[in-house]
Design a protein that fits this description.
Blueprint (H helix, E strand, L loop, with lengths): L2 H22 L3 H5 L3 H11 L7 H8 L3 H13 L3 E3 L12 E3 L1 H22 L4 H24 L2
Antiparallel strand pairs: 1-2
Length: about 150
């Protein structure tokens, strides 16, 4: 049956694509002491007015709590994020926001991802792209459901 090998192919392709994107990412990330996982978190923070909690980052990225905690600590130390000043009195559940420095970096990374996206989709039929993204979202939803059943 052909479907048995599809998850293997899908998994390999995902791993390869992540590696390729990491290779294409600006060299400055390594010099700055961060990687694409940090950028993913920063982009999520950037798209949420008022910031996001560590818990939301865990839920959104699928990264575990310890990794998110380490990444936020690094981003705070490097001056890319900070706790939302409105949450100063909270011990738990405080939201993280980007600093001016973090916003500038995310703006550059958004340009990078925008250019990469344009290059990737050039020459691909819009109908095919919509179908691809719809299917990818469906796979993600099904994989989430299956993984939650195992929790």
């Amino acid at each position: 049956m052909i479907h048995n090998s599809l998850i293997d192919t899908f998994s390999v392709l995902l791993c390869q694509n992540i590696r390729f994107i990491q290779k294409l990412a600006p060299d400055e990330l390594g010099r700055l002491g961060i990687n694409l996982s940090h950028i993913v978190c920063m982009r999520i923070i950037d798209t949420n007015t008022g910031g996001v909690t560590a818990r939301v980052l865990c839920e959104t990225t699928g990264y575990d709590k310890a990794l998110i905690s380490r990444m936020l600590s690094t981003l705070d130390k490097l001056g890319y994020t900070e706790r939302n000043p409105h949450d100063v009195n909270m011990r738990r559940g405080c939201r993280y926001v980007l600093t001016e420095r973090g916003s500038q970096l995310i703006e550059r990374m958004n340009d990078f991802f925008g250019d990469l996206s344009q290059t990737l989709v050039s020459g691909v039929d819009e109908k095919e792209l919509k179908s691809f993204y719809r299917t990818a979202a469906l796979f993600t939803d099904k994989l989430r459901e299956l993984s939650e059943k195992n929790d």
